């Protein structure tokens, strides 16, 4: 029965463990009408054993005075020979032996080739003709059944390969699928030859349960020739037919990516098997082209997304940088032209505005540079063992000056929390989180910064009692250029890089960051870093 193996839950496992035909069908499909010396000897033995059995049955019928059944028994024996042997020669011999055995054992005088009776010659002739015609018809029918079974098998193999390949989503899965399929089809170990670290050499081996247990022979030159010729070489082909393997190139996008080699030993693949193997490899080439087309579409989509992000970045920067620069320029012009006419309080207010805008510009540029280096992998962490509360204290000194308009609460951990981090980058994380709370909450609101220990992690939590963030926005707050309430930054003073930078820095240190709802309302950002434990050796080094 055509089928495939399943996994534990009964579902078919993609790209692996395909059974092609049942044991009986394999025996029928393996039948060849081309006799071999070994097969000739076996068929000869079948002929004599069948005639011997027919003679024994004939003796039983003779003792029961059922002589009419003896002729039919010999005709049936010839039919059995036609079904069990190869070619017509043994059928002809069996027909002749049936007449001779009948004449020798069951005609008068018995145990002699002499037959007394005028009807015997005609009986012998009719018996021979009927037996031979019946056996010929049986051989013809067997061959037609054999041909139809081969056609059925070829179609089924291609369908199985097509279904298996459609389930594959990567080039490696496709290689595994066709390797396993060819191993079952040719009943041999299959070797995948491709370019690797050591050059063109065997990369993978596939062995089906039904594969012939022979020591695989690696023929790299044959595989290379198949790659160069872009066609099958080896056993059963016109190119190096004396090779012990059968080699098929696998082509993707008009380029040979490797060669499948079947280790056949002394066996030569039948033409039908070669056609089926080439059909399977052809299906694999189509699947590889499909995968490559998908990869190209994905690359095009990524490029389009990058172009869109670049355009969004330019739009955001041109807007968000122009606004504070315009304010700085305007305030500076006022101070230069009418500074003497302004009151001291007004001049101080203008100067504070200039400082605030300049600080924001500086922070934005720092974030842009930092996230660019992180995404390009150009940042090397300069890690040192630091006290986490010291990092928090340093970060608050660099926070937005508008934090003085809020109520700031600091809750340090009772234990000393040590972390091995790049202190400058972690300070930037805390500054971004605190400034984010300052920007998105009303003056007079509470901002709480706390630290605590959780197992092997040190936790930093920055929360506020502002309006909070919608659930629909929480999944995107760590994306570049995303700002709450809008798809992209385009109006408020926020390029949308601060939280994305926080996530990149924390993950670069082996930590994690999450967003939560504060109680009773507001927003909380919490990030975890691996805690550093002092041992006796490290403590002596620290001292």
Automatic annotation (TrEMBL):
GO terms for molecular function: ATP binding; phosphorelay sensor kinase activity. It catalyses: ATP + protein L-histidine = ADP + protein N-phospho-L-histidine. It holds the Pfam family DUF4118. One of its GO terms (cellular component) is plasma membrane. It is found in: Cell membrane; Membrane. Keywords: ATP-binding, Kinase, Membrane, Nucleotide-binding, Phosphoprotein, Transferase, Transmembrane, Transmembrane helix, Two-component regulatory system. Residues 316-533 form the Histidine kinase domain. It is a multi-pass membrane protein. The keyword Transferase applies. Its EC number is 2.7.13.3. InterPro entries: GAF-like_dom_sf, HATPase_C_sf, HATPase_dom, His_kinase_dom, HisK_dim/P_dom, HisK_dim/P_sf, Histidine_kinase_KdpD, KdpD_sf. It comes from the Bacteria. SMART domains: HATPase_c (SM00387), HisKA (SM00388). The chain crosses the membrane at residues 40-62, 74-102, 122-141. This is histidine kinase. It comes from Parolsenella catena.
